[in-house]
Amino acid sequence: MLDGSGNYGVDAEQRNRGVELSLFGEPLSGLRLLGGSTWTEAELRGTVGGGNDGNQAVGVPEFQFNVGADWDVPGVPGLSLNGLLLRTGGQYVDTANDYGIPAWTRVDLGARYKTRLDQRAVTFNAIVENVADENYWASANGGYLTQGAPRTFKVSATVDF
């Protein structure tokens, strides 16, 4: 928190109340889902002079939502396609709640292939993060903003020894 002279210090309380829900399952054979939601009320209390009491805490979105799916492709043993949807609510960047960053959504898509090479289990992964190449601020805290990554391609291989 900034005190009356513009210095950072521990000059208030932050009360967090909310609900978090998670879900995992395989509703159909070969289709796995994982998701979660969080609703948080992060309220400032006991601020210097009471001027920011009741405001939303810096860098705490009111909601976050994510859902991921992993699907085994029929007829192609070892191949799975996957996706992830992330949604994060807007956040304030200052204790007065004068400035904020908007909510954002990101979609990631990927594939995984499991096989055996030379008697060893091998998994190949490929993913495109931020498929739509959205520009967004991922978070706000500590007096700075974190920019969301642009469209990113990643590939990897894992070998069991």
TrEMBL record:
> What family, per the record?
Belongs to the TonB-dependent receptor family.
Against Gene3D superfamilies, the record matches this protein to: TonB-dependent receptor, beta-barrel domain
Q: What InterPro entries does the annotation carry? A: Beta-barrel_TonB, Beta-barrel_TonB_sf, TonB-dep_rcpt-like, TonB_rcpt_CS
Molecular-function GO terms, alphabetical: siderophore uptake transmembrane transporter activity
Q: Which residues form the TonB-dependent receptor-like beta-barrel domain?
A: 9-131
Its localization reads: Cell outer membrane
| Membrane topology summary | Multi-pass membrane protein
Source organism of the structure: Ectopseudomonas composti
- Name by which UniProt lists this protein: Iron complex outermembrane recepter protein
- Has UniProt tagged this entry with the keyword Ribonucleoprotein? no
Keywords noted in UniProt:
Cell outer membrane, Membrane, TonB box, Transmembrane, Transmembrane beta strand, Transport
Q: Where is this motif: TonB C-terminal box?
A: 144-161
Q: Which GO terms describe its cellular component?
A: cell outer membrane
- Pfam families according to UniProt: TonB_dep_Rec_b-barrel
